[in-house]
Amino acid sequence: MIRYFTSSDGLRLAYRDEGSGPVVLCLAGLTRNSTDFDYMLPHFDGYRFIRPDYRGRGASDHAADPADYAVPVEMRDVLELLDHLGIDRTAVIGTSRGGLIAMGLAGVARARMTGICLNDIGPEIARAGLERIADYVGRRPGARDLDALAGSLARFHAEFGPVPEGRWKQEAVRRAVETENGLVLNYDPKLRDAFLRDMAAPRVDLWPFFDGLAGLPLALIRGARSDLLSMETATEMRRRRPDMIFANVPERGHVPFLDEPESITALKQFLGSLN
Fold this sequence. Notes:
Layout: E1 2-6, E2 12-18, E3 23-27, E4 48-52, H1 71-85, E5 90-95, H2 97-108, E6 113-119, H3 127-136, H4 146-156, H5 167-175, E7 176-179, E8 182-185, H6 191-200, H7 207-211, E9 218-223, H8 231-240, E10 245-249, H9 261-272
Parallel strand pairs: 3-4, 3-5, 5-6, 6-9, 9-10
Antiparallel strand pairs: 1-2, 2-4, 7-8
């Protein structure tokens, strides 16, 4: 069930709150929403999963100014959601953009973090992956319907090996909405403006944010064919954090679905390590 709260700047933001037990905050990718974790959840009992739709994504209100589609603003929204729910401490599973938000949260609200799992994201982001995202972000799907979009996604993600039956159709349903005028994006197209702005901005050194995770339980799940998180960066992350749980998921690019056996094993180990 989708629920809502109001942000400090007046946006109605959506989230899902399911299960009971230790809290796990699930933060989706750039253009994604709370359904990003649908594949993972059936494998885990005994946890309370909080899954927000960032502003401009899914069922949440769009921002009046695309400049508000920024990691610091999304960090603020997440902290306000935790306050709204009365949650003092949480683990975080962050996919891509969500992992950047997670590292930021550990910097400003470390006492509220019980551990962080990064899904195909790290302190260095490969330019090739960013350029691939820039090719499609904010652009209306050219496919005529969801079935055609599923076929397009399968071709676009040719680096992925075998996936479960019907998976690309499931992905199509999560990424677009059918209307009488064709498919429209399930997020604000103005997110493109914000993404291109960030790409053009001077590069920020994110290694201090990663190093700031010292002492927190940490896991990294990487798609073995990822074009966003290089193996070199993952290797350096492991060098700096020898205790980091690591899974290099075969037959996956950016990003693993989190229901692969390697992903599930790493997630169970990560969740089991939390205090």
